Each structure stands twice: as C-alpha cells, then as structure tokens.
Fold this protein.
Amino acid sequence: MRVWHAMWLRRIDERIAVLQKREEQQHRRRALPRQPEWFVELGIGVGSPPAEVHAGSCYAAGKRRRPVDRDEARRLLASGVRACSHCHPDLTLGVIGLSARPAYAAAAR
C-alpha cells in the first residue's frame, strides 16, 4: 500500500510541475509587449524628421524608432518618407510610387 501511494504521489507532483511550467510560459507570453504593426525610423538628433517607414516585423530597422498606426504610416509614405527596401511597407499599404520621390522634391512643389 505504501509503494502504491508513493507512486501516485510522484505522478501528482510531476503533473503539478508540468501545469506550473505551462502557466509560467503563458504568463511570460502575455507580459511581452506587443510588436507594433508599423513603425517609423527616426533621423539623428532631437526633432529630426522621420527617415524610413518599416513593417513591425522588419529586421533592417535601426534603434531609433517610434510605433505608428496604419493611417500615419500611409500619410508618411505619401508625404515622401522613404519606404524600407527590405519589408516594403509601401506595397503592403498600397502607397506604391508615392514614397519613391524624395522629401525635398515634394516640398519644392
């Protein structure tokens, strides 16, 4: 009888450990900040204009970035901010050709 109870106690302890590990993993997943859908890479210096628009999963972006929503990303691309050549947010957002012109040419008009 003692061996039988020890066996079941071991099984119960193993199951509790598995459930605790699963719960910790779910908690860590919920605690991670959500990745933005779009972000803009900023230029160097305080108050510098945006340099490039990226998709949220882009690997080629620098460290100076700010999350933006879909409408602001489209507005930035339409105003002449360069689209990333790796993730192509202009194709995804349907702003093809507008982001190819340089910002200084758009301001001269």
Observations:
- Residues 39 and 54 are 5 Å apart (CA to CA).
- Residues 2-31 form the longest helix (30 residues).
- The two ends are 91 Å apart (CA to CA).
- DSSP finds four helices and four strands in the chain.
